[in-house]
Design brief:
The chain contains ten helices and no strands. It is an all-alpha fold and 233 residues long. Helix 4 crosses helix 6.
Length: 233
C-alpha cells in the first residue's frame, strides 16, 4: 500500500465524526487486509443490533464514498481534504450516504429476522424501529450534514415503519437506497458521474455481500426476541 494512500487515510481519520470512527477504522483495515481480524460478537440484544447496523453502515458508506473519490481524484486525493468548499460537500455526502446505508441494512435485518423463529412480522415491526431510533439518536443532527439531513432522517423512519417484513428475499435487492445516495451526493462533476453510474452503484452493492453474510452468521434471533420481551415487560 503506497505512502500516499496511507497519508490519505490519516487525513480522513483526523476529521470524520466520532460516529464513524468507533469501529470503522478497524473494519477498514481488516477489509484492506492490513489488520488482524477480530472475533465478532453475536448480536443478541437491541443495543448490539443498533451497534451492528451503525458500524456496518459506516463501513459501507465510507469505503464506497472514499473509494469513489480516490478513484476519480487519483494522486490528488489527499488535496481534496484541504479545500474547505470541497470538504463541506464531502461531509454532507458522508452523512447522507451513511443514512441511506442505515436504511438499507435495517430493511435487510428486519426481513432476515422475520423469516427466523421466534420472530414474526409484529415483533420485527417493533424491534427494528427501536434499533433505528437508537442509531439515529446516537448520530444526532450534525451541522456538517447539511440542511436536508433532518428530512432524510424522517424518510428513513417512514420507510422502516411502512416496510413489509414478510417479503422473502435474501439478496441485494433491498439495498437500493445506498447506491442511489452515493451516486447523487458524491461531489463529482455531473458529466463524469454519467459515465460512472453503473460501476458506482454496483460497487456499493458489492460491499454489502460480506455484511449480509455477517447478518446470517451473527444474528441470534432467539436471544434478540428474549431481549426485546424483557425490555417490554
Amino acid at each position: 500500500m503506497g505512502q500516499r494512500f496511507v497519508k490519505s487515510l490519516e487525513i480522513i481519520k483526523n476529521w470524520v465524526n466520532p460516529v464513524f470512527t468507533r469501529d470503522y477504522w478497524q473494519n477498514l483495515t481488516e477489509y484492506l487486509g492490513i489488520g488482524r481480524r477480530r472475533r465478532e460478537a453475536p448480536v443478541e440484544d437491541i443495543d448490539a443490533l443498533a451497534e451492528f447496523i451503525s458500524t456496518r453502515a459506516s463501513h459501507v458508506a465510507q469505503a464506497s464514498l472514499y473509494g469513489y473519490l480516490r478513484t476519480r481524484a487519483g494522486t490528488r486525493f489527499p488535496q481534496m481534504f484541504e479545500n474547505p468548499d470541497l470538504l463541506t460537500s464531502i461531509n454532507i455526502a458522508k452523512w447522507h450516504v451513511w443514512l441511506a446505508c442505515v436504511s438499507d441494512l435495517c430493511v435487510y435485518s428486519g426481513q432476515h429476522l422475520a423469516q427466523s423463529d421466534p420472530f414474526d412480522a409484529g415483533r420485527v415491526a417493533a424491534v427494528l424501529p427501536d434499533a433505528l431510533r437508537r442509531v439515529l439518536d446516537d448520530a444526532g443532527e450534525p451541522d456538517e450534514a447539511g440542511p436536508d439531513f433532518a428530512a432524510a432522517r424522517d424518510k428513513v423512519m417512514q420507510r422502516i415503519d411502512a416496510c413489509d417484513w414478510l417479503r422473502e428475499r435474501d439478496d441485494d435487492t433491498v439495498f437500493g437506497a445506498s447506491p442511489e445516495a452515493l451516486y447523487y451526493w458524491a461531489p463529482i462533476a455531473e458529466e463524469l458521474k454519467e459515465n460512472d453510474e453503473p460501476i458506482v452503484k454496483n460497487s456499493v452493492r458489492y460491499r454489502w455481500i460480506e455484511v449480509r453474510r455477517s447478518v446470517r452468521r451473527l444474528y441470534d434471533p432467539e436471544a434478540l426476541a428474549r431481549s426485546f420481551d424483557q425490555d417490554e415487560a
